[in-house]
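>> Question from a student workshop board

For tomorrow's exercise we were told to take the sequence and the ligand below, predict the bound structure, and bring the output to class. My setup keeps failing. Could a helper post the expected result so I can at least see what it should look like? The ligand is zinc ion.
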Amino acid sequence: MRTTNEFRSLVLLSLLSMMAATALLGQATKIVAPKNKYKLADDVQLGREAAAEVSKQMPLLPKDGDVDSYVERVGQHLAQSIPPEFTHPEFHYEFSVVNVSDINAFALPDKPMFVNRGMIKTAHNEGEMTKVMAHEISHVALRHGTANATKSQSAGVQIGAIGGAILGSVIGGAAGSAVIQGTQFGLGAFLLKYSREYETQADVLGSQIMARAGYDPRSLASMFKTIEAQGSGGGPQWLSSHPNPGNRYERISEEAAKITISSNKRAGQDTEFPAIQAILKGMSPAPTTADLEKRSRSSGEGTRYPDNTSVGGPVAPPSTNYRTFQQKGLLSLSVPDNWKQFDSKSSVTFVPDGAYGNHGGQSVFTHGAIVGVAETNSTDLMGASGQYIAVVLQGNSYLQVEGKYQKIQIGGRDGLTRRLSGNSPITNQKEIVDITTAFSNRGRLIYVVQVVPASEQDKYKAAFSQMLKNVNFLD
Ligand SMILES: [Zn+2]
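>> Workshop helper replied:
Here is what the output should look like for this input. Compare the format with yours to find the bug.
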């Protein structure tokens, strides 16, 4: 399984935007933002955390350099063209250029929208460049990230739990779970896939924003076609988070026919773009995101397994000799001494040889366990566990909840265990995933995720119960 979370864009808009919004025609499709139980401040907090993580991992072009300033000017013009009903004074739009060659862009609430250098290079003019930006801004303005969370989490779960879950998945990456997959180099966790419904909303609102900003929304469709045609050049990365809802081009053309393009152009809108492309051409070539990921992995910073490992080999049964794993300030427990250990920021994965590796670009494992911690504001163990499980299910769509929560004692504390199962895409066999949770003294959610193919359950029973029996909390 894999852990991820659908979290993403929300925009911020300054007061300026309200003044700038100019005449648009009444017939534009009326969009209703999806149901959302989060506060705007929650979007802002999540966005800031995510952006900090991204900025640490991705090379950005210099702030206030020619290219960055240009993209900032264009971005502000778009942000000021958001229809008034979707402007939120809490959101402050800001734009940064990532120095990678893939075509991509992504937005987070409150902090920068990241625009890849490759996206600027691929566009034929400023209008095309703004297409993807307007689409991303729309996800932010419509608060699709927290709307997704609203949809997928049960009532009563608090925002801190979501934050923890997000964190959990970043780390989770390799560590995630059985078929857990690696993230797209840290970004993945925030770049989850939107539903078709949200994609259509972002296309329609994106068209409206473009028209208000003086761009022809029909080129929204042409930019998407360009991205699709790029194939392995990075297009799919963007498209995998923003799937074509099926009638993307028709819907955009339909909307374009309903709205009038405003004359509210940005100064320099028709003239500046070629000079910026020339500057980019003169710079040394940008690496791809995959290059960066590889470098990070070889320096041991990444959350993925080594490149040369492949999952699916013979897997030795758990040793009956145990070693003690200790996480300072958190807990200690026993693990079979033939399981390898992979650490990441907030979780540790224990896996036997042959049971972990990279599969279809994702880090996965089929046998073993993850121990990790997530921040949560919830004081209700079942609520916090449900939240974590929701994230696991979201990232591993083949799994389903099987049965009810079981109460257990773990390290002298009350804990809960719940079983998930499903047909693993790696082994093509039924996989059992048992998730045990308890609170730390400081109120953090500690989770132990144990994964095994159903056909080998008996062989792992003793090792799994030994792990839980020997937990000592150190916090
Ligand atoms: Zn989208």
